[in-house]
Amino acid sequence: MARLVMFAILAVVILASAVFCVSTKRIMRAATGLLFVLFGVAGLYFLLDYTFLGAAQISIYAGGITMMYIFAIQLVSKRTLQGLSERWLGKRTFLAAFIALVGVATVILVLLKNQFINILTGNENALANEITMDIVGKTLMSADKYGYVLPFEFISVFLLACIIGGLVILNKNKKEESK
Amino acid sequence: MFDFSIVTKWFDELLRVTCGLGNFSAILIECVLVGLIILIAYAVLAIILIFMERKVCAYFQCRIGPVRVGWWGTLQVLADVLKMLIKEIFIVDKADKLLYYLAPFLVIAASVGTFSFLPWNNGAHILDFNVGIFLVTAVSSIGVLGVFIAGWASNNKYSVLSAMRGAVQMISYELSLGLCLISAVILTGTMQISGIVEAQTGPWQWLIFQGHIPALLAFLVFCVAGNAEANRGPFDLAEAESELTAGYHTEYSGMGFGFYYLAEYLNLFVISGLATTVFLGGWAPVNIGVEAFDAVMDLIPGLFWFLAKTFFVVFLLMWIRWTFPRLRVDQILKLEWKYLMPLSLVILVLMTVCVAFGWTFTIA
Question: CB distance from A70 to chain B under 8 Å?
Fold first, then answer.
């Protein structure tokens, strides 16, 4: 009962903010709408007792990615972003509808192929078991079967490459400026 | 030690058995009550902290501070609150109205959110997740957005400038804050806040004693970074009065400004409370290994210990604020990225080595 009420509230928040995000004309408002969508999704994770995922969602998406978007908006001139409007009909609408359909199809396919719905509906207590930090940490760092140490290392190297790339671009710009 | 869960369990019994309420309504009533208690404690602590700040600031500047309203000026802050509540709220021309009204709520939500993680007593922690410390840092990062949106929505170039500075500063200092917390997590082996405090009960078990050198360094870095994170102390250039009029909340009046003011003081309290929880033992009493002394200290309730230690850290931070001159924006960023962050990485390695070889200070 309580879960259902919370789910309804979160669903309304997510859907309303998502619609607001894409339909508003001001770019900062869109970013704020996105922020509330991300909060809502984090709330869903908490509802499912995936507290680690919820915390990561708030910290990385709501706190980090949205902040990056807002900084990026600041770097673009104000006039190009204010009062943007797009007509509804046109080639782009079909393209957008197609992409949305592909997205929906992927989600449905994954849901149907995956076993976790059967596991959840068969077992009453499946939602009550919170996955603790110990398990998350050990899985992330183990090299056994179902261990995630290889993707973890891969992502670390990838991020390092991004940082070095950023520094190289920065240096290039500085040299051009000094010339 | 006094266990507060006796009270909560009694109240739960009262609702469920005596009043015969169902699971849903009992939990609903409890949640509403706990929420009310949090908000009241928040407001009362803000009033106490503002009064304390005015008095401490006055004595550091060889003044006596407010004395006219009430005995020794004690009612001054209440008068200020009344003034703030009846002020007119107006909006700047061509400002983004929605974001303008939204921004203070984001800041206050982040502040109340982190506030409710503090462990007040044995068994009196309100939010106690398994991911505890990580979630605290996550929730506190929402405040940055509030600051930034406020600056943007004010339609004022000084506000935007100050919001940029404030956001950059808060994002950078979050790094060393998080790294210090991680080193504490390494030592205690848990992220749950109640677990961290429990690991510090017993003689000489507070983390700064248990983890000696790395923990002490981490505590110092945490205090500096926390001061910067709360936009205070020598790091308050985001609201530098003389250069940017008042920063990102220039255009706010009435309770809009009041929320920023509240959040600033409560963030100070939250940072001190977290420093207390993680490094100074939270509600754990002073135990020195002498049985009679420890028994007497254990009789004093944990709430007293927690508040005493937290207000001690608050006093330290206020001392720093009213002693050091303000830093420039490039100096602030240099301090974080060139000194504090490498230092906290070194602390992290040192702490790991200490824990791995068992070089921690414990009295068996």
Answer: yes
